## 1
Amino acid sequence: MLGSSRKRRTSDKSDLNIQLASQISRYIQEAQFGPGEHLSTQSLADRFGTSRTPIQNALSLLAEKGVLRHLAHRGYFVTENIARLDASEEIETDHTTQVYFQIANDVMDQKLPNIVSEAGLRERYGLSQVATRNMLARIQQEGWIDRRPGYGWQFNEMLTTPDALAQSYRLRLALEPAALLEPRFHLDPDEIDRLETAEHDFLAGGIETASGEHLYYRGVRFHETLVAASGNQYMLDTLKRINKIRRLIVYRTMVKRERYYGQSREHIEILGLIRRGAMDAASTFMRYHLINTMMNYHALGDLISSDHP
């Protein structure tokens, strides 16, 4: 009996490591990390709602596969092999990603009660115990569910309303244009090139073929990279928190892809202004860009609304 219990715990740990390795490899692709970029163990632990140890184990698995390179005392770095990693080579099919978005849709459609249990979610979505706990940790990290005192989990109702998305954009309108005017702002020309290339790839057909995850991360990475270049960590921390929370609502709108063409062109315009050092103009255009995006979401109100069929 004791041996069986120990074997089950070992299996659970192995499953978690493989699941995290799959999620990290997909995240690297979706966020378009290039060869040579460093992966922060703590940042990944924060992102996936787990401790550093399983993240280290997952990174080790990816290093064995050749997706990452481990350098002693320096950490893990993306290799050129990530560009050749396709669906057939992935460590496992990430069923939990599909379930994650199904839960998001079910919350928006009010198909789930406000208070849920781990056992109930496990049975409803066909997840293992480890996968369910990892899923709940991820959702909690993103800010749209909280553990209740004593028993169960409670969804944050505020995040399922169109007004919540509008509020997040009003905060971004105050934050992101100001970040471009910070005295320590500096964006490396190579980073500008990488961001521009990503936008041109999207305009050349990627918008129609990219997954919802890829579309989301592309926008997140663009805006977080610019705010990170401000040198103001408080601004960056605030934007990251907003991006985690708004994901629940933004995902619903990804069925309408036409607006991404305008967003990509506007991203390229902002990058061009930054490259020329025209920071006042870049800040003004960033405000214009965010207002346009907010208006696009307002036009998609029926999709965002929880009574959408």
## 2
Amino acid sequence: MGHSHSHNHSHHNHGNLQGRNLLITIFLNILITAAQVIGGVISGSLALLSDALHNFSDVISLVVSYIANKLAKRKASLQKTFGYKRAEILAAFINASTLIIVAVLLIIEAIERFQNPQEIESGLVIWLSTIAILGNGFSVLLLKKDSEINMNLKSAYLHLLTDMMASVAVLVGGLLMKFYDVFWVDSVLTFLIAIYLIWMGYDLLKSSTKVLMLFTPEDIPIDKIVKEINALEGIKHAHHIHVWQLNEEEIHFEAHIDFHNNITLSEFDDILHTIEELLFHKFEINHVNIQPEFGKCDDKDVIVQD
């Protein structure tokens, strides 16, 4: 079986930075949670206590992300030939699920509070929600860049972002209570944030599920790839194709290729190299595994369920 492991870029330094940023955000969130619990108890503010609960769910999701980020860098072994490269996808899946659960709880809470608005010690609420906004805002900025390229960090980032928005809702609620005696805004804002959470969480849940289920990445047209491979000289037919994503950096491709002639191994190596270059430059596939065949009577379908 001709196999190639090409173009694997090193993300080592980058990974350490991600880990450090996650640690900072974990620490910040533990502080915010503690402050909000104390403040919530003193002021009798349900908003603050529920905000503290969200912050605590952030801490948990950040810890999940941090562990996954560390695990993903572990070396492969005989028992774990891929190492822990999927840890981050799994973390994204878990965090996306919890995002949706938190959102549903938020909606229930918003409806209840809308029906019986609470009189609250607004001064303390205003101060503590401001602290939470600043802390979460800083955390959000720390993770923003990586969240665009990494599903795991995106899930942590979303938890923080919505938490920041929830704190903004609490702050606006607090200010309106203090100056205008308006008590329903808080519930409406909470409800809107929850809807946003469900929308983002669902998207993340979908994309992480696709990777876990070994679905072909959306931007990879298998029929086009087969056409391009079949057009190469000496190749009769590509079949038994599997394309899957190991994690966000690695896409694997495997196929059986039928040759017109009984070529030598060195000739096959040249063709294999051409296929690798083609797949990498055109489709960003960086792991290629080809089984060469000549005159073999197996199923010639492009996709075969083993």
## 3
Amino acid sequence: MADISRPGSLYGAVDLGARKQALDAQARREAAGPQSAAASIVDVTEETFTTDVVEASMAVPVIVDLWSPRAPGSAQLSPILEKVVGELGGRAVLARINVDASPQIVQALRVQAVPTVLAIFQGQPVTGFAQVLPEPEVRRWVDELMGAIEKFYEANPSLRPTFEDAPEGPAEPPADPDLLAAEQAIDAGDLDAAAAAYERLLARNPADEDARMGLAGVGLIQRTVSVDPAEIDRRLGDPGDLEAQLVAADLEMLSGGVEQAFERLIGVVKRTSGDDRDRVRKHLLSLFEALPSDDPALAQARRALSSALF
């Protein structure tokens, strides 16, 4: 049976927009070229530590990768850090430090294991970890770090870097109040309020993709909040249990199995007819709403659905 276990984080489950962010980041990297990501990554020595880490951290967080060519874990973790930090477009710096060549830094930072990752901000270590994490966990850690930095600047606006101090890059427009209200409602677990905020935003701007995706994500949670995944998994043994197939697809979407959810429902479309087929088709279209319009999985699923219908 497919893994349709419930996601652990409410906000993470709704935030299917992470796929959109990844696509946007990829587009920015392609437009800016390889030098853009490289500018956010520096190799640090004991001689350059003060300038490249301590002083740099007064404007942006510096993520320090303490690695060693002798540590297999470094070979796994370092490329992930380079990828994730490179996608931030200069909003953070990755400082790579070879611990074998920098014993004084190791002593000063009290490094006990390799690899170790530390975030330095305003000249001080603020968070870190000392283990090999998979890419999703690294992304979550970086997202939490960047969120904490933004809250710091909101509380201390005079310390926010000026245009001259900040890394080069386009300024982002202020977030829509209803979008912020929706995100706050999600954080508070109030899905009805989140849906209402997204609906208000869409009423004013029907083309707002973030609102469309957010509303679809909230709908997924609302449909599955009282569902027992084990019970749905058991019911999937009955090919005629249409409701189980629909709920299983919802759970797969929330667990990140987007392609798996699409394939499931397209398969059901192929083997049903009449009202049942139309119900599944409409449900699949509602899942499409949870993804950015340029998501490759969406284009592929639309083609497959068209083939299944005609």
